[in-house]
Design goal:
Layout lengths: L1 H53 L3 H6 L2 H25 L21 E6 L6 H12 L3 E3 L12 E4 L32 H9 L26 H14 L29 E8 L2 H12 E2 L5 E2 L1 H10 L10 H21 L5 E4 L5 H7 L12 H11 L48 H12 L7
Parallel strand pairs: 1-3, 1-4, 2-3, 4-7
Antiparallel strand pairs: 5-6
Helix pairs in contact: 4-10, 5-6, 5-8, 7-9, 9-12
Length: 451
């Protein structure tokens, strides 16, 4: 009996042990398929991602391409704008069926109505802005290139004044006193002056060949051999061109519209001389071009242009005030002489002029002028109609300086500041040459020389 019980107990223990083994085996065998299933799902997910990427729409791939972004954000608007300019400014006949009254193209040799010339810091940018914004005229600042810019009514520019500055050694007997090339004869030729002026781009002087005409040089390159050659060609043609053929004067009594007969590539029907009180002009020039303040050095770019245009002076040996002063005197005196010869029509003081007064002097209200675009004339007459009845619109108010305000309380000059020996001057102490010149110019331009 005991033996039987022992056998029974042994059988039970063996059955329990077998069950434990099965249980362990069952757990092990059930977890393995789970791992496989998990790995299978992961692989499937990756395959789906890969498949989704491989089968993504082409447009989605393009949108993520950096070149597409550059093209969409920069190149496309640029291309559309250039197309717009090409059609409206160069070939308006292409859309004349849509706009029967569209303005005709103005080409290089076509007459524009107005050219205003004035020295740097005389307020030319402000005048251009006010004529454009307050009268709706297409007026450019330092730009007369009408095939890519809306400047078909005229231009306000300091550098276009080169038309009325005598060419050294050709239009005058003035001998140069500068040695730009180091060792070269001081009696330089006109062509040498031109090459000196065009040697490098000086953007701070507001001049680039493209402001005169659309040449063959690429605008993607700011300067180089092509632009240098273009600059020399333009400067040779423009320099003194308004002084040539002066014996062939306009006949204002003729039945036909009077034409300005000069040797300039782009003609203007009216030329006005814009002036500002010389001392105020000097203050702005000193603030703009004197490195380190009133007793500082003159910016090299200013010296290059001053030396080239007026080589009878030794600008490199002057103080900054002196360099600015002799430049202002020579520039205004040259334009003044052209006005005395009837080559420049009139002058105006920028401090006392309204846009409507300038437009009237420029002939934009003249009903007999064929060079004025009729809608431009109509717009000016409408905006300026209130002048006679005392309506104070923006076009009938004195202009306020809001453009290029370099001198905001930085420099204030008195007459004694122009004496020799002051502010870095190498002249004899008390030398009065510059002071006398600027006082004489001040009176000539209609200002008081008393401070």
């Amino acid at each position: 009996m005991a033996a039987a019980n022992e056998n029974l107990n042994g059988a039970v223990r063996r059955r329990r042990n077998n069950n434990k083994k099965k249980s362990r085996y069952h757990v092990s065998s059930s977890s393995e398929p789970s791992k496989v299933a998990s790995a299978s799902k992961s692989d499937s997910s990756e395959r789906k991602k890969t498949a989704a990427t491989a089968t993504a729409p082409p447009a989605e791939k393009i949108h993520k391409n950096p070149l597409f972004v550059i093209t969409a954000v920069i190149l496309m608007p640029y291309a559309l704008w250039n197309t717009y300019l090409y059609v409206f400014l160069q070939h308006p006949e292409l859309i004349s069926f849509l706009y029967p009254t569209i303005r005709p193209a103005v080409k290089l040799h076509d007459t524009r109505q107005l050219l205003i010339v004035g020295t740097i810091s005389s307020g030319t940018s402000q005048v251009a802005r006010d004529l454009k914004n307050n009268l709706g005229l297409e007026i450019g600042h330092e730009n007369a290139e009408a095939s890519w810019s809306f400047v078909r009514d005229g231009t306000v520019s300091w550098f276009h004044g080169i038309r009325y500055i005598a060419r050294p050694g050709m239009d005058t007997n003035v001998k140069t006193t500068n040695n730009h090339a180091g060792g070269e004869n001081n009696n330089m030729t006109f062509l040498t002056q031109v090459k000196y002026l065009c040697r490098e781009l000086q953007p701070q002087m507001g001049f680039h060949p493209f402001m005169f005409r659309d040449g063959d040089c690429s605008l993607r390159q700011s300067w180089g051999d092509c632009w240098r050659d273009e600059c020399e060609d333009i400067v040779k043609k423009e320099w003194g061109c308004g002084l040539r053929n002066t014996s062939d004067k306009r006949d204002d009594t003729a039945m036909l519209r009077p034409q300005r007969r000069d040797d300039c590539e782009t003609p203007f029907n009216k030329v006005l001389h814009q002036v500002r009180h010389p001392l105020r002009t000097l203050e702005s020039l000193v603030a703009k071009f004197c490195i380190g303040g009133i007793e500082g050095k003159v910016q090299p770019a200013f010296l290059i242009f001053a030396n080239a245009l007026f080589p009878q002076h030794k600008f490199a040996e002057m103080s900054c005030i002196e360099a600015a002063g002799y430049y202002v005197d020579e520039y205004n005196s040259a334009i003044g002489k052209a006005r005395e010869l009837g080559l420049v029509d009139d002058y105006f003081q920028v401090e006392e002029a309204t846009p409507c007064q300038i437009a009237k002097a420029a002939g934009f209200m003249d009903p007999d002028s064929n060079s004025v675009y009729t809608p431009s004339r109509d717009g000016v007459l409408k905006l300026c109609a209130g002048e006679s009845i005392g309506i104070d619109g923006a076009a009938n108010q004195l202009m306020k300086s809001t453009e290029n305000r370099y001198n905001t309380g930085l420099v204030s000059l008195q007459w004694d500041d122009l004496l020799g020996g002051k502010h870095g001057s190498r002249k004899k102490s008390g030398d009065e040459d510059l002071q006398k010149r600027i006082k004489r110019l001040t009176r000539t331009l209609g200002y008081s020389a008393d401070l």
